[in-house]
Amino acid sequence: MISSWRRPRAARRAAKELHGEEGGDMELTTPNHFQSHGIERIPTPRIPVSSIQVSEILSQITTASKWEDQVGCRNLVAKIKAMAKESERNKRCIVTNGTDSVLSAAFEVFSRTCLDESISVLEEILSTLTLWFPLNGEAVSYLGSNSSLRCMVWFLKSGDLSKKRNAVLVMTDVVSSDQSKANVLSVIEGAMEALFNLIKEPICPASTKASLMIIYQMVMITTSATNERIATKFVEMGLVSLLLELLVDSERSICEKSLGVLDGICSTENGRAKAYTNALTIPVVVKKILRISDLATEFSVSILWKLCKKEKREEKRSLVEALQVGAFQKLLLLLQVGCVKKTKEKATELLKLLNLNRNRLLECNDSMDFKYLRRPF
Question: How far apart are CA 224 and CA 230, in angstroms?
Fold first, then answer.
């Protein structure tokens, strides 16, 4: 309507051109046509969504999932997602009405049906859930069910890139909220391989970090037998070498998570055995001390402590190599600048072990300058 435009005269001229001066044939015009006459549209603000509207849609989603109405449920979830994307106000209103619980419950229902038939609605729910982390406890309970986790693993193995990303992000939130789910996930066929492949063939930084977080939760399970089983399987896939390659040149967050996973793997005998055989292990780990962040330093010292302390007495190659790449200096500096108690204890013990092996190193490297090693400890 003419009243909805600024600059009425220009609007009248445009209207004449649109309808014709003499009432002749109408010519189609585009928004660019009006802009050429200096006319600007005044955007009409959308009315914010209300709690009543949200509650009604959520009730319909619950009913649709109860009757396994895949098409109806998918359309309703898409409607909720569109509303959430319109504004932060809408998003807050949608979240506060328990939307994540309702959507997670619907996901759990459809995950028990034939996946080939329910893939569309399941995908839409996962995509929508990624809009508001962290999820509440009730939502985690639904998504942490065996059927829900198996469904997400299915997406990781057979979905396209966006499906894989959404699945691993939701899975990370579940496992981070309840570590027992990491144990459940570890026994689902293909789960560990799918997570490994997301690191080996990355989709995006977010999916790489999410995969590392889930694997970290898996390898940090306290039950020794379970921990050994999980770590050994990842070692056989080649995860140790992959982590070391990531550590050579990755941003802070990925480095921290990679070091955390490597620390967990080095808690096991098979993990340490594999780490000993890789020429990058000691140089890369020592390099990360005091280099990335406090967390990265804590993980690095822990890894170095496990490798040096638990190496067979007659070998001690790790200690000698650590001295060669400057671990002694870095650990001394770490004690001077300060660190958490657990890391301080490990650094102190490492310094004592390194000090005992200085003579062996000096005998093997007469031509090198190790004056810094002659300071008493």
Answer: 10
The tens digit of pLDDT for each residue in 139-168 reads 999 999 999 999 999 999 987 899 999 999
Q: Which residues contact 371 (CB under 8 A, 6 or more apart)?
A: none
Give the per-residue pLDDT at 26.
41
C-alpha span between 315 and 215 (Å, rounded): 31
| Alpha carbons 377 and 361: distance in angstroms, whole number | 16
CATH entry, 238-366, from 1.10.10.10, 1.25.10.10, 3.40.50.12780, 3.50.50.60: 1.25.10.10
Query: 59-63, 91-95, 107-111, 116-120: which range is least confident on average?
Result: 116-120
Q: Are 265 and 275 in contact (CB under 8 A)?
A: yes
Who contacts 66 (Cβ-Cβ below 8 Å, separation ≥6)? 109
Does this model's pTM top 0.90? My answer is no
